[in-house]
Amino acid sequence: MTEPTPILIAGGTVIDGTGTPPQPNTSVLLEGDRIADVGPDAGAGRSDATVIDATGCTVMPGLIDAHVHCTFDDVQSNDELFFHRDHTLAALIAAQNLQKLLMAGVTGFCDPDTLFSMGPSLRDAVDAGVVEGPRMATGVQALVTAVGGTAGRLVPDTGVVGYAQVVTTVDEMIQMTRRHIKYGADWIKIHATGSIPRHKGELLAWKPEELKAVCDTAHELETPVMAHARSAGSTRACAEAGVDLILHASFMDDAGLEAVIDAGASLMPTFTFLANLADYGHLVDAGAGMQDVFRGEIEATAKMMAKAHDAGVPLLCGSESGFALTPYGHWHAREMEVLVESVGLSPLQAIACATANGAIAMRMEGEVGTLAPGMAADVLVVHGDPAADVTVLADRSNLRTVISRGQPVDLDRPWPTRSPIPGEKVANWAASSLTSDLQPPADLQGPH
Ligand SMILES: [Zn+2]
After folding, report:
1. What is the pLDDT of residue 288?
2. The domain that contains 150 carries what CATH number?
3. pLDDT class for 148, splitting at 50, 70, 90?
4. Number of domains in the chain
5. Ligand 1 centroid to 142 CA: how many Å?
6. How many Å lie between the centroid of ligand 1 and the Cα of residue 113?
7. Is there a domain that residue 20 lies in?
8. pLDDT, average across residues 371-382
9. DSSP letters of 134-198?
């Protein structure tokens, strides 16, 4: 086999992803799927290299979106997700959607839970070159108790639906954790809090010994655990049980933060979904009356995330892409924007959350997420200065080059689209009830 031609990205301003200041007039040499050199003289004299002139551009690591649901296909409701999807079609459509992530500058992502347990298969298909997509780390399904997570009564009392595996006893929790690892899970996902009708917000739906049973079992098999925790107190319970990565951590208090610090856990607030609902939900008839609730949740949580960041807790960026409010390819940079605006991070600190810290979710620390010799050749060349304004990363037209595993991604092709597929959406007989008082008076009725 012939060696791939080296790529020299010459003369740009390098943001290396660690949070250190940008380096102007710096070059990056890529050999195969690795970074060979970074510096003012990198690649000097390498006449064999393909040169990308990055003068006036920013060169930075590819984004790592640590919270994507790549099999959900921009779903509008849990009913649609649980009852209107087909196994094979869902896999084929996911493969198409993975292209959108790459074309938006995402070169790595983590998917906590997948429809039809397909995460490990998709990951392996990407790694084998069968499907074009970013690097992927994945769970199998979310473990939920009979309370049912955020989907409530749509989740059955036992068994599997959509992304959820119901576990009702400690034995079953241990068994399913082992089974997910057997089938290739990079992460075990626990849905720690759930919604209950007639109760505001979410409640912790696991006992401490249940959380601990899953964490201990996963750790024995060298697999980390992430948990969805969206209530006061749940972050502390998860951290104390040994959860490695806490998603949302909404309403975390000081005791919760202490537990996170003691456990050495990481946090992924995933503000993007809430921020989109709060700021733009009205544009798509979503979240009516909920704007203030979500804004409040962001503000309460953001204060604690600032404290966590100051205390050295790694914050990860996740967009929750895969829902109609967070379609693939559109919002992968928004979390950085919220980290700057609401949490008070500098743009460079926010970029580190979406690159270097993302490596935690990939389980590839020291391999991806920064620009340094020996690291993976996952690189963006960007018009504009994200160190001054992270929102330049939200506009795909600012992405000049995306390199994934040492290979430039084709950004000139049309954005992937598809036609509707029969049966894939919830269908209603009517938008409301046809009560008799809706009949017009007899004299206005037409001839029979
Ligand atoms: Zn999620």
Report:
1. 72
2. 3.20.20.140
3. confident
4. 2
5. 10
6. 8
7. yes
8. 98
9. -EEEE-S-EEE-TT-GGGGGGS-SSEEETTEEE--SHHHHHHHHHHHHHTT-SSEEEE-EEE-TT
